[in-house]
Amino acid sequence: MANIIRRDPLEDLFRGFFVRPVDFGTGTSSEAPEMRVDVKENPDAYQVHAELPGIGKEDIHVHIDGPVVSISAERKQEKEVKEGSRVLRTERYFGKVSRSFQLGQEVDEAAASAKFNDGVLELNLPKKAAAQAKRLNIE
Fold first, then answer.
1. What is the Cα–Cα distance from 21 to 17, expressed in whole angstroms?
2. Per-residue CA distances from 96 to 55, 71, 89 (Å)
3. H or E stretch covering 14
4. Residue 26 maps to a domain
5. By residue range, what is the domain housing residue 59?
6. Mean pLDDT, to the nearest integer, of 92-116?
């Protein structure tokens, strides 16, 4: 008796478009690293925590455009194991990850700040003061 497998054509079409979880610590995977992001809102600012283990702060870029925040990072790792003058194994890993998200209100770029400590990027994004509507008098 033959086995019948039911397949969803849309699943096959979109299979490569979504990022799957990756072990960031070993650096042996050929897939792009994953970035986990937490966004918290308080009355006057947004707090963003992004986990980027194994990445140096010089390889992280943050771009703010109104309410849209984009974070991108690149990881380069090379490992060579030698025994005497004979190379036994050489591994290379290059990966790039980026995330963009839209906040509920525009961010004041001039007052925004960022810290990177122990693989966690912390962004403090103050909200831009909402413009007051102005009523025009008709003459």
1. 13
2. 10, 11, 24
3. helix 9-14
4. no
5. 33-126
6. 89
